[in-house]
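Review form for a predicted model. The reviewer records the input and the model, then writes brief findings.
Reviewer: anonymous (R2)
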Amino acid sequence: MTPFGAKLRQLRQERGLTLKEMAAALAVSPAYLSALEHGKRGVPTWYMVQRIIAYFNVIWDEAEELQRLAESSDPRIVVDTSGLEPEATELANLLANRIRGLSKASLRELVHRVRVAAAKDGA
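Model under review:
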């Protein structure tokens, strides 16, 4: 499941909606919506995210969060480390080879550490 899919499911369930109801309102199939929730579809289009924001009638911070989550929810990432330091290639490969075995706590810690390092380095 992607971060966007998890948030989408949370919003839908908090409002007591079925996939079928929400899909009909958004003019998409329930299968598409299910695939979006489960991370089996790529990043939704900007237009689709805006339709979802309008459907849930969310504003400001929550709307920005949905857009940010959509942008960071591609389940099939390609990391190009050509021209970077050897450690960048090692890190990308290590993560690619071991990500399935990491616990939720370890994943959260790694995300936090990368964000802190990126902020420190101005990236």
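Findings: The mean pLDDT is 94.
Further findings: The domain at 3-71 is CATH 1.10.260.40 (434 Repressor (Amino-terminal Domain)).
Recommendation: see findings above.
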